[in-house]
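I am still learning, so can you show me any protein sequence you like together with the matching structure tokens, please?
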Amino acid sequence: MSQMIEPIHCTHAKNTTAHPGQIVLDAQQKCQTPKAKAADEKCLKAAQEAKEALAVVGLNQLAELQASMEEAQATMTKPKAVRPHPLPKKHGIIMRAQPAREDADEDFLASDDDSGDDGRKKKGGKNARLLSNAIVKAHKNLFTAKADSCDQPCVNKKGNSLP
């Protein structure tokens, strides 16, 4: 017959000093005397009442704060809206500093009028053309400066050549 080898049982290190029936003892309901139970309930009730009292005090403080804020808002006047003043239209992209003259405002306002006989101003006009020309020039200068700075052809991330 073959001989059966039984496994060797070793106690885990933390269980060497533990009482084997401690699990059962912990699971049992503990008995209290009526006096002890009454004392525990009295203590729990006192703790609950103290917690409720603190909550009431906090709510009273919050109510006082809200009331004071409402009073402050009721007495506060509404601030007047700030409306920007229109500025005269400036012609050209680059404005150079000129010496101040007393009649400078009158000359500027007189030359500012682009309106026709009907009193309406033209849409776009000279400023729009000057601005678009300046953008095109800056764009061309930017790409020619990039092309001149490197000996190899300029390409973007996809590999397409740039002008």
Notes: Residues 100-118 have pLDDT under 50 and may be disordered. Residues 34-75 form the longest helix (42 residues). The helical segments are 22-27, 34-75, 104-112, 126-149.
